[in-house]
């Protein structure tokens, strides 16, 4: 069992493996019955977003 992965519906850590979908392990929550896969966080960190907003308000351009 992987430590720290919570059910997206109820937040429970109680889960069981439930197959593989497109190369990713799928899990089933023992409490709510919800099926889910581990997903990675998307987007930029908050520190980068804050820098972009500050540059915007200062009228500066930026290159990604």
Give the termini separation. Answer: 39 Å
Q: Kindly report the oligomeric state of this protein.
A: single chain
User: Which sequence of SSEs, written as H and E, runs from N to C?
Assistant: EEEH
Order of strands side by side in the largest beta sheet?
A: 1-2-3
Indicate the proportion of strand residues: 25-35%
Biggest sheet layout: 3 strands, antiparallel
Structural class: alpha+beta
Strand elements, count: 3
Q: Per the principal axes of the C-alpha atoms, what is the gross shape? A: elongated
Count up the helices: 1
Structure, explained:
The protein has 64 residues and is α+β, with helices and mostly antiparallel strands. The protein has one domain. It contains 1 helix and 3 strands, in the order βββα. Strands 1-2-3 form a 3-stranded antiparallel beta sheet, with no helix packed on it. The protein is elongated. The N and C termini lie far apart (39 Å). The mean pLDDT is 87.
Entry summary:
It contains 1 helix and 3 strands. By secondary structure, the chain is of the alpha+beta class.
Descriptive key words:
single chain; 64 residues; alpha+beta; 3-stranded antiparallel sheet; 1 helix; 3 strands; 25% strand; elongated
Topology record:
Layout: E1 15-21, E2 24-29, E3 35-37, H1 46-58
